[in-house]
Amino acid sequence: MNRLMRLIVIDGLDAAGKDTHAHLIKERYSNNGEKVVLRSHPCSDSLFGTKAEEALKGEGKYNRVKATFYFTLDVINSFLRVDKSIDTLIFVRYLCSVAYLPEPLVSKSYKLLSALFPTSPFMFFLDVEPEEALKRLNDRKNRQIFENEEDLKKIRKRALSIVDEWHVIDTSKSIKEAQAEIKRILESRKNHG
């Protein structure tokens, strides 16, 4: 990966506003004349992303394992496809996907993936209470396998246990307030990325 490329990671619970905030960040940098690529996982233009999405719409333990496996391959595939001439790469759903694994595997898997994959000073975990996430998910026609109160609570707890070096953004507040906080962090660190 190009040393000069800025990597921004947006992760968080389902319905925390990851895609919304990633698109707002992309728009800001694009409007400044930068070449920006946004990859939201699972990616619909990737075989691995399509397989992960299919598993997420299924049921049972097998589909949970399958979704995690294909999701990981999708992220790897995204890195292999990165155009080295871009200024900013925004990844939606990245290292925190390990929070979907059984609890004993979360910490070790996160350490392994953070050693293998690039990290950045621009890693944001969008946090929202599971109850609020469920209210937002009510509008979705086809819920995914993990989009229920029990799983959201477990996943949030696991994710928060591994994001101690991330910027945790409370997205229960307005989009405008959360974006202002993200913008402040990006601008305060602009000479570091």
Textual characterization of the structure:
The protein contains 7 helices and 5 strands. It is globular. It has helices at 18-31, 47-56, 60-80, 103-116, 130-137, 149-160, 175-188, and strands at 6-12, 36-40, 88-92, 123-127, 167-170. The protein is α/β, with parallel strands linked by helices and 193 residues long. The protein has a single domain, classed as Rossmann fold, CATH 3.40.50. It has a 5-stranded parallel β-sheet with strand order 2-3-1-4-5, sandwiched between helices. Helix 5 crosses helix 6.
The residue ranges in which pLDDT falls below 50 over 5 or more consecutive positions are none
Main β-sheet, in a few words?
Answer: 5 strands, parallel
- N- to C-terminal separation? 13 Å
* CATH level 1 name: Alpha Beta
Output the structural class.
alpha/beta
Largest sheet: spatial strand order: 2-3-1-4-5
Full CATH superfamily name: P-loop containing nucleotide triphosphate hydrolases
Instruction: Please report the total strand number as a whole number.
Output: 5
